[in-house]
Design brief:
The chain is of the alpha/beta class. It has 1 helix and 13 strands, in the order βββββββββββββα. A 7-stranded mixed sheet has the order 4-6-7-9-11-12-13. Strands 1-2 form a two-stranded antiparallel sheet.
Length: 174
Amino acid sequence: IVVPDQIDGLKVSTLAGAALGDFKEVRTLTLPETITRIENACFIHMEKLEEVTLPRSLKMDDFKVGVWMFQWCTSLKRMTFLSAPKYFPPAIFSHCSALEKVEMPGTTLPRIVGKYTFEEVPTSFRLELKGNETCYRYEHVNNVYTLISEKTTNEHKSKDFQLSKQLWSAFRSP
């Protein structure tokens, strides 16, 4: 599917909730740079979708937008954000059982990570920050979700511990 940047001369800036959900046979998705908002469950159950690049124009700064965005996209392997999200909405990658990598620019993780964001993703999943070439691996132990840096310096270990505490708190809150 290629989402157009205009329809009948009007700019396409928002994808409505569940707009493309249940398009089970779609493997690729191209979004225009005009998209600034993607509403809840927009791509839910696109079971054959393998790779998505979210445009630079997308603003992920409202915690109520994008919930369940890619939930149950069971073939999704790779997600690329062209602009750094300020948060990951709840359950954005929930049950993406083939997810290998999420790439995003910048040097810091999103401030807020919603509940169930990484539920049922593989333990081999990696989150890569391109700004400082840091890669985080995901761990889920006793209902505690943690992203741990694969860098091994003492400075990063300290930051990872703080990050783990912060993520643990985020996942424990409703």
